[in-house]
Design brief:
The protein has 335 residues and is α/β, with parallel strands linked by helices. Helix content is 34%, strand content 26%. InterPro entries: Gfo/Idh/MocA-like_OxRdtase_N (IPR000683), Gfo/Idh/MocA_Oxidoreductase (IPR052515), GFO_IDH_MocA-like_dom (IPR055170), NAD(P)-bd_dom_sf (IPR036291).
Length: 335
């Protein structure tokens, strides 16, 4: 079996999850770690193996690199992905797909014309609780889906934004808590609910005003084509990083996700349906444990020549909803 070569661009806080997930794959070799800060790239290469570089363009001519992981700031995703896809590389990018819709569409188009695949890291779809919720919705065993609730209460302070000059700015991050921290929960709500017909919402900067341009708090209401509705509340102004909460209401019961455990409430009784495995080394508990599963699945699709299901077309759905909430908030304030 041919050994696949991998590269990671961006050696910030998320890259260890990618490096560790790749290291678990027997038929993949991590060959290159890239960061504009050469010291970061060399430190990562020393820890995970492979070479270090400070310019991603070196990848374009390397035949020993098949898959490239983008762990870079949001506004850099599109430019890098388009060039890599043109060179025939497979690209797996961290969320969001891009900082804006136009950039994201360029990525989708580049993937459509490339022999390489584009995958988007929306790893929470791989959590056992998420898979169970989706299965129950599809089966109809609890009747019609009526409504959903998602709550994300995390903590980000001035020091967090000071670490990266791109954070907290519309032009480079593309938004705040909604596009960065809450997009996983938003993605799950739209995955569970299907096509969205109407979006309302509002974003505010409650605590970090003067520190960031973007929002630290958001709420939104979604109406789906099925008739179901959903609400989302997200903030970076909480005291700690609290586990994400989900509630899925059906005609004949309710599913509750608390601390990544999934419970079914029905007929006055609550039953534990599933609980998460321990997070892999290097992961933060509130990130979930789906990275290794998602990355393993992406490589399996590449190896088998099958189209990966979490591609750009799928990844752009949650990004569109994020932007629609921003637009709803903007127009509401104008009124």
């Amino acid at each position: 079996m041919k050994q696949l070569g991998a590269a990671i661009i961006g050696c910030g806080s998320i890259h260890p999850l990618h490096a560790l997930s790749v290291s678990e794959l027997e038929d993949v070799t991590l060959r290159l770690l890239v960061d504009r800060d050469r010291n970061k790239a060399e430190a990562a290469a020393s820890e995970y193996g492979g070479e270090a570089a400070d310019d991603y363009l070196a990848i374009l001519e390397r035949e020993d690199i098949d898959v490239v992981h983008l762990c870079t700031p949001h506004h850099e995703h599109a430019g890098m992905a388009v060039e890599l896809l043109k060179a025939g590389k497979h690209v797996v990018t961290e969320k969001p797909l891009a900082a804006g819709i136009e950039a994201a569409e360029r990525m989708v188009q580049a993937a459509d014309h490339s022999k390489g695949q584009l995958g988007v890291v929306l790893q929470n779809r791989y959590n056992e609780s998420s898979q169970t919720i989706y299965r129950i919705i599809e089966s109809g065993e609890l009747g019609r889906l009526v409504g959903m609730k998602g709550i994300v209460t995390w903590h980000r302070n001035e020091g967090y934004y000071a670490k990266g000059g791109w954070r907290g700015k519309w032009a480079t991050e593309g938004g705040g808590v909604l596009i960065n921290q809450a997009i996983h929960t938003l993605d799950l709500l739209q995955w569970f609910g299907g096509p969205v017909e109407a979006v309302r919402g509002s974003v505010t900067t409650d605590v970090l005003d003067g520190v960031i341009e973007v929002e630290d708090t958001a709420h939104a209401h979604f109406r789906f084509a099925s008739g179901a509705t959903a609400i989302l509340y997200a903030t970076n102004a909480y005291a700690v990083n609290s586990p994400v909460e989900l509630e899925i209401v059906f005609e004949q019961g309710t599913l509750h996700q608390r601390r990544d455990c999934l419970y079914l409430s029905r007929d006055g009784r609550e039953t534990l349906l599933c609980e998460p495995p321990l997070a892999i080394t290097g992961a933060k508990s509130y990130w979930g444990t789906g990275h290794r599963l998602m990355i393993r699945d992406f490589y399996a699709h590449v190896r088998e020549g099958k189209k990966f299901w979490l591609d750009g077309t799928e990844g752009i759905k949650s990004l569109r909803l994020v932007k629609q909430v921003y637009e709803a908030s903007r127009t509401a304030h104008i009124k």
